[in-house]
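Why this split exists: single-chain examples teach little about how molecules sit against one another. For that reason, every record in the complexes split bundles all components of an assembly together and asks for one structure covering all of them. Below is a record exactly as it appears in the raw files.
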Amino acid sequence: MMNIWDLERITGADVATTLEERFMGNEALYVRFLKKLLADANYGQLKEALLSGDTKGIELKAHTLKGVCATLGLTELSDKFSQVVAMVRNGETDDAKLKAHIEDAGNKLRQVLMVIQEL
Amino acid sequence: MRENNTNMKMYALGTVFLLFFIALSIVSLNVVKYRLFNSSRVMGQSIAARFIDREMARIHTQEIVLKSAAGSVYEIVALQPPEMEAEIKMHLEKYTRVINDILTIGTADMCAVVNGKVIGGDLWDNTERLEDFQWYQDVLKKEAGEVVYTDLHRLGLNDRRVLTKAIRVENSNNIIVLNIYTHTVERLMQDNVLPPSSYYYLCDNNGNIIYSVGNRHLTLDALQPYVDHIVQEIKAGYYDDNASNYVIDLEGNQRGVYYVQANNGWVSIVTIPYEYILRDYQGLLFWYVLTLVVFVVFAVFMYMRSKRMTQTVESMNEVVRVMGNVYYAVYRIDYENGTYVRMKGSDHLGADTPEQGNYEDILQKMVKYVAKDTAEEFAHTFSLENIRNLVKDKALDFGGDFRGWYGTEYRWVNIRLLSDAQLKNGEVIMCFREVETEKRTQLEHMKITEDALESIKKTTESKNMFFSSMSHDMRTPLNGIIGLSELASKHIDEPAKVEEYLQKINNSSKQLLSLINDILDMSKMEYGKLQTNDDPFDLRISIEDYIAPLELQARKDDKDFIYEYNVEHNLVCGDFPRIGQILNNIISNAIKYTPAGGIVAFSVKEIVHQGTVSKYQFTVADTGFGMTEEFLQKIFVPFERDIRFGARKAMGTGLGMTIVKNLVTQMNGSIEITSALNKGTCVVITLPLNLQGECNKCGAQCKLGSVKARAVCEENVDMTGVKILVAEDNEINMEIVTELLTMKGVEVIQAWNGREAVEAFAKSAEGEISMILMDMQMPELDGCEAAQAIRSMERADAKIVPIIAVTANAFAEDISATTAAGMNAHISKPINFKVLEKTMAEYIVK
């Protein structure tokens, strides 16, 4: 079993601030919402949009993920999706580069999800 | 000085009198003495005359006896009896006895020389030859029956003093001799008395003492030199010159000498002691001296007494002079005759005023020097008539203060009118004293007292006003609660309405509660019982949480809110709820009194860091209406409100700034306010706060502590029953917001995009939704579009429902876009729930 401070230690998440500011110090509530991330479909949908070349879809899903991650204090992850959003908005829809960024974010996400699973 | 001169004169006169008296006495005494001496001379001479007369008479008797004896001897010799010698002797003894009977001055001894033979003469030892005696020769040559006298001479072996008288018997050379042996006489005849201690001497032509009376058991020989001296002086005429001339006797006493010289050349001398002559004089002198001594003692006593009295008077005069110096001018006024005499203060009415004169004239002069406003009253009060009335009413000390002209300025002068039983009838004393300083002090004190009274009056008034406005303010929500609860009970079957009424009742109750809280705070402060806690907190977080809703409100009112934070030490200990109360008061005032389009700037700075304490400066500046200087001075006075803005809706309890000032003071801080009308106000609050010691190093633990502290303070925010529309496309975010708000008792209406949000608001009852939380980036309609749509709806709450933007990027253009869309405030994303809660509390309560 891990606790949320392990999440901060392992993934660099800003647990303290998030717990205080967004969950009113309610750790159980925080954990409950972190677990929701395990069942979240947004990353799958982002991959689908990437494969189908739906740039609008990529932007929307990345933006959503950015917001969710920020809310949950997963700062690093949030920044990665934020970069994706920025690339799409700047028209940098070059396949390989965008894909690499999305994969990189996905790897980080998986790492985080592994920790969350243990909570 | 005048008194001194008078005294000197008196003493001199006294001395002259005394000397005169003494001189007169001496003259009188001398006259008396002279008279006494004269009368004593008369007496002495008469005594001397009497003595010599008696002696002459005795001599005459002796002559007769001697003649008789001569006759008897003649007859006996003629008869030639056989016992002739014995018969003669017997006869002589008979005659001797006769003489001795009358003779007191000596002893008589008779003898006869018959036929050359001496018969009788017991006392004569016949050692000398008869022929050797001059008197023997003389008597033989004389006619029979003629007596021959001798001066005093010495006779016999004893060389005794003797006076010899001899007579020749008829028809023969037979002689009868009478020898008188003189001596001092002890006892005198009754009719020939001497004054006491007086002596008498009878001397012959040569000054030999024949006999003396009243001698001192001295022999005549012993006395002879003394008497020789006297006789010598007599012959020189010394005792005739002056009746008071004297001789010093053998005992050394003074004696008056009086004498008479008889025809045969004998001198009769009486000496009377001065002691006796002047016996009355001594008494007189004694009484005189006694009187003199008594007189002198009395005079000295009088002098001392008078001197002491003079000293007392002098010291009294000094006191009076000193007291008089208090007054710069003193007048003696005869109000019966209308005249005055000036005792002091020659030039206070100008140099040309006379020493004395008509009172009316001087009064007119005085009036000229009195300040115009009181001149008339002065003239009336000190008119002769009024003075008369005052004296009649027995006003012994009357007067007052007025302002008199002192050449360059008016000064306060005290005038007194004194009347006294000691003064002459119809007179009063008028005196002037400058009392500028006293008066000024007095006036200042009066002003202070008046001010204090005025301020008490004001406090009471404002307290009364406060209570009346307070009771009005309290009555409004209370009436609401009563009316609404009545309505609710009438509509008990309609849950929706009941709920609405209960909601309104709740709002009214909260309003009431805040009012009461303010009053309680206020009264706690008045009794100094307000306590401040000392809990740890993060200054930055606390401040930013606290000002978020204020910022929202500022933006809602179309005012720019600038926030700066420049602090190194954030973790401090103190009572943040109280600090928040202070900041809330100041900032909301700044917002309230700044017109739309104005700026409110709030900055926090750490100005001093020292050990475990830092000083923080909170500055709130605005470009608002500002305050008048007048109001600025009483801004901390309870119940004061700047009435220029009375018409505005925003009216507090009038206690805000008072509470702020008290709180700041209690936290050992200071507050300074500067303000310019129509330019703005700047409030600077400086507070010292203790740092959280070691806490800076311990990270998470401290943050937890801080979280805990904040949780405690935020439990107060009660949002039960509030309905909020949340527009959010992110599922998780929506869930989190919904979850947390629901936990707070808030009912959340979910909208997944802008269009849904607009629809949800349109569907809601008027006033049902208390607030809209609007995400900016949403599909269908974004936040700004949705906000604009809601604001443009034709319903009462469309314009006033608070819309809070939730935005990920707090760029200036984004924020101005939210303002343009009619949104009240914005919070950053991800949502800080504390900030959200504050903002909600701010907007929902309002």
